[in-house]
Amino acid sequence: MSELGVPGPPAVPTRATCGAYLALRAEVVAMLELRKTLQHRSVLLQTYGLSEHSVVASTSVTKLRALQAGAGGHH
């Protein structure tokens, strides 16, 4: 956490400050894991010659078609 400029554990370790610090630490860990996952997926996309925008667009079109097909079947 010090690498990100976040100071160490609270100087006054009350229940509230420790709880806030632990929550912040959990959010930082989650953010770092998401960053790592994003970086890994970006490398995979580049490996297969795809852009992130094309994958998002094709996924959106696929979802839209599925929704339209599902709505059409209920009438």
What is the residue-averaged pLDDT?
79
**How far apart lie the N and C ends?**
55 Å
The assembly state of the depicted protein chains is single chain
Any idea what the radius of gyration is? 21 Å
What order do the helices and strands follow?
HH
Number of domains: 1
Provide a descriptive summary of the structure in words.
The protein is an all-alpha fold and about 80 residues long. The chain has helices at about 15-45, 50-75. The termini are far apart. The mean pLDDT is about 80.
Explain the layout of strands and helices:
Elements: H1 15-47, H2 52-73
What's this, in brief?
With 75 residues, the chain is mainly α. It contains two helices and no strands.
Task: List descriptors.
mainly alpha; elongated
